[in-house]
Design the sequence.
């Protein structure tokens, strides 16, 4: 069995990997999640690459005497041309959900896979987008949801797999991508990477 490392502390991402039969060791990246790009695709790809590379450097991936795959991932919510990260406080969470309610927004997840060990290192970076439509919400509904505390560690201030499911009207694209990892695409790209696929960077 190849050693697989998830460069994220997200229990949701670990769960999604387990769902497709991948048992991953968790070694979170210690770096700051700083968004440096305005384009959502580029932003999540850069963040995922930072996480994977950080962990690869920490474990000296090229020097390992076994094959290792590191999975780095990051998710952002975008409304219009604005990227919405994780809210810093309850008021910011209220503001974010107020913008999303009754409208369609996008969720982007970037993933970087690094295959290393035995003196070898190859890398794939990709991203997925899902369109999410939210039912109209009253100010009280928004406040009540924020008061649950659920939005505080989530991009865009909501968790689709949690209480916010009550307000999801429609999804176009990969549901798992909104949870935090496009599991099917990850599985396919892992096959390509570990069976001799070429870098795309």
Sequence:
């Amino acid at each position: 069995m190849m050693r697989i490392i998830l460069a994220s502390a997200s229990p949701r991402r670990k769960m999604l990997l387990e769902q497709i039969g991948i048992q991953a060791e968790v070694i979170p990246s210690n770096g700051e999640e700083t968004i440096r790009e305005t384009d959502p695709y580029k932003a999540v790809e850069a963040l995922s690459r930072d996480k994977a590379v950080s962990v690869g450097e920490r474990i000296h991936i090229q020097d390992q005497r076994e094959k290792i795959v590191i999975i780095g991932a990051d998710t952002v919510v975008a409304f219009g041309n604005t990227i919405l990260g994780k809210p810093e406080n309850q008021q910011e969470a209220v503001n974010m959900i107020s913008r999303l309610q009754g409208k369609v927004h996008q969720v982007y997840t970037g993933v970087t896979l690094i295959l290393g060990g035995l003196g070898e290192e190859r890398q794939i970076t990709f991203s997925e987008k899902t369109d999410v439509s939210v039912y109209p919400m009253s100010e009280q509904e928004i406040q009540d949801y924020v008061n649950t505390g659920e939005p505080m560690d989530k991009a865009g201030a909501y968790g689709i797999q949690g209480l916010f499911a009550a307000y999801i009207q429609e999804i176009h694209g990969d549901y798992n991508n909104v949870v935090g990892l496009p599991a099917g695409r990850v599985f396919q790209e892992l096959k390509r990477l570990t069976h001799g696929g070429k870098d795309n960077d």
